[in-house]
Prior knowledge:
The chain is α/β, with parallel strands linked by helices.
Amino acid sequence: MPEGDRGEPMGVTLKEIAERAGVTASIASRVLNNRPDVRVADETRARIVAAAQELGYRPDPYAQVLQSGKSSTIILVAPHSYYLMNARRIARVQQALHATGQPVLTADLTSFGEAPETVDFLLFTRPTAVVWLSPDWDDHDFGEACAELHDRDTYVLAVDYQRALAPEVPCDAVTVDRAHGCQVAVSHLVDCVGDKVALIGGQSGGRYEGYRRALAEHGIEREIVGWLSGEEPPHEAHQVARKLLREHPEIRGIFCHSDLNAIGVVSAVRESGRRIPEDVAIVGFDNEPWTEFHDPPLTTIAHPLDQLCALSMSVLRSRLDGNTDPWCRIVLHPSLVVRASTVRAG
């Protein structure tokens, strides 16, 4: 198809886009082709992208790769969408990425094999950036992947990483302090029901660390833990809760790894003849939309998803505009949402 300036279809020129956006053609070209040497305000970038979209501009990815050795594509590496919270995170981050005006490709991490195969795929597509949502690799593998991508001039942003990243890992990270959230949840349970509080969950993501912190904070030495493998929530949580309640009839409060796991725990508590919250208080994690309407409404820890996306996109735009500051580590704290599963009516 005949073209005017590089990348736009016939009939749409960079000059036209620039005139509509109120900028020079050079600035419009650099923004639309994701040049690292351009620094523009977010509002200016948004005007340029909006003008291009209104005029039907479509960049030519092949021309970009031939000229620079890289495409302007951003790859979102996503976790398995089986879990509702994962699906919400993926959709929200996708929406935020598309607002940048860059082409976005979403890759489901479960479709790859080991770490080397994943990195090979990412390098083969020659993206300008990789946004890695909720990486669940161990720290060594993820650090190695970031180093290899960085060596090939590919920027990496870790969004919602569940552990603390070493400062030397070559990527930016916006994380949620799950251990803090779990500590708040367990402290709330202790305040409500006393020292017979159990954890039903896994050791990943800071849950167990937060549980232990809260017990220590209140001078409680005895732990009551039911471990989950994470394969079949809420079914596995239901079975683990039944066993734990039989072995520890003194339990008065249960902190659940997630809201989905809480569904199974609630069922097990009721099967045992106990009332919620009169006999056993329950707290979940994630603040899924349905938790407000659950019976009883579920006390939970709210994942700061909107703030996570806003800060992540701010960091990404800054790097795409050429920011070379040291790697950043932004940590967000989730908050407690108190509902009837821990508070008696009246």
